[in-house]
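Thread title: Can someone regenerate the structure for this chain?

I was given the following input by a collaborator and told the matching structure tokens would be attached. They weren't. Posting the sequence so someone can regenerate them.
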Amino acid sequence: MKKIELLSPAKNLEFGREAINHGADALYIGAPAFGARAAATNTIEDIDALVNYAHLYGAKVYVTVNTLLYDSELDDAVKMIYQLYDAGVDALLIQDMGLWYCDLPPIALHASTQCHNASIERIKFMESTGFSRVVLARETSLEQMRAIHKATHLELEAFVHGALCVSYSGQCYMSQYLNNRSGNRGCCSQPCRSSYDLLTDDGRLLVKDRHLLSLRDFNASQHLESMIDAGIVSFKIEGRLKDLSYVKNITAYYRRLLDGILEGRQRASSGTTTFFFTPDPDRTFNRGYTDYFLRGRQPMANFATQKSMGKRVGEVTAVGRRSLTVDGTEPFANGDGLCYLDADNRLQGFLVNQVQGRTITPNVMPDIQVGTTLWRNNDQLFEKMLQGRTAERKIGVRIKYNVYIDCVRVEMEDEDGVRAFVDSDAEYNIAADFGRMSETIVRQLSKLGDTPFTPIEVIDTTEGLYFLPASTLNQMRRAAVEALKLCRINHFHPKDVYPAEGRYADDTVPYPEKSVDYRVNVVNAKAETFYRLHGVTQVERGLEQTRNYDGKALMTTKYCLRYELGCCLHPEKWKAAKGRPAPGAATDNASAAHLEGPIRPDDTLLLRNQDRLFRLEFDCRQCLMRIYKK
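Best answer:
Regenerated them for you:
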């Protein structure tokens, strides 16, 4: 049975250590360069230190080298990859297929979600080339996960929490088109979080100034067991640019949930985590939640804001001249940030200056009505608590104390069967009080304190027959701890996954298509060679090189604005969708959008952002929406 892994983001060394402390089985972290989050890079030295810390707990470290690489960058990327290999990194996440034809060390490769891992055919091809894991597209449903699992032996990794890109990952070129900042090169300017007008090509304004492409955050916490049963082995939390409180809180939340359902299944790392707080995902950054396409299509955007709304804390029950009274049980604190939706369904906010019971005094009195719902997007008490020590993680060890003819030995064996021992040639004598000496041995060897270990049992095989001073016992215990730490780091050092003569993609396996266009993102000669060797006869270069946007989709999305606004062109598809909008019915988002007029089936729809126009195309056969420049 495969081990189940909780995979957390690490912005840097500190965040990575805390993710491990809070129960992560693995981390993903940015390399010094060529990662899909250019603002989250790390030195080789810090990655080396994090690898040692993670391996101490049997956890893994995956490094993102998942940007598209130009020919001039390949040599530098390969040099960096060798440094990462020497540091003991467990795997690389990559997007650029050109790396397959570089001289890489025998390190495991994972196909990043930017590889557009959205179909069985594509994923089976990835398996044939030698990837050990694929990160599934966020749009993958439970049903699709099950089908992919049956069709392949690859490890399947899936996102479980965090921000959602509205476009299929790797298929978004909007940021590059607008700002010359390529998401495939780690520099996305997040145009999906901007506000847009929706209008028809004959000039009728339908929606004004709303966040029409901004999705709520992903939360699959109610589907973990179903995802495990569907074949997912790694549960990925998004957030390499999020703050430390988010990493602690969300990692702890999913650690608790997974521990509750892993009976009979193996966890992917060692130790037991104890939390000194109650995790609550609503209390850190979130735009509201959706489980996206796990159960099929449903409303999933937040037209009102692209910002965090946080946790619902109550409704306004009274409005005074300078204060508000709020129902509910959530305590307030000076400095809390509260927000609400005004009559025009736009997010407004204020800070709390003073609290008296359920009555709060804002820093600026808002224009607010009785019955308005309040959310807290800055929780002072929670944030202050998360700044302190919020978890510890301990590995169980059995300790044996033996006396031999020429030495005294302290041996430690941990829960994974890793052993270490230290000998001392200190002189020892017959103890005057056997029972008392045995108690001293057990007591001193049990003092593991702030080490990564906790004693399961301490066995004195001599039953206190020989006397040793407590100082000597303490010295041996400390030395045994350091020896066991080193043994664990070495034990969990990754094994080479390719033969000594190098890695080989199976060039006899044909790519599913004979012709590939800009969406496979080929920007170097080695990547083009990769596809041609797999039977592709026509290879179009990527938009990062050609800059030719005419007739090219700037975004390809499974999200559909027509559906979100209650005017799906094929509503019969959703008749049996229990708990979802009836065909053609207005959704909550439709109401929030303040539609200025009806959307007709034959309308050609446009998005407008300042002076830029974009045409929407609805591919109902594949249930996709595409966005083109006008």
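The first helix runs from residue 13 to 21.
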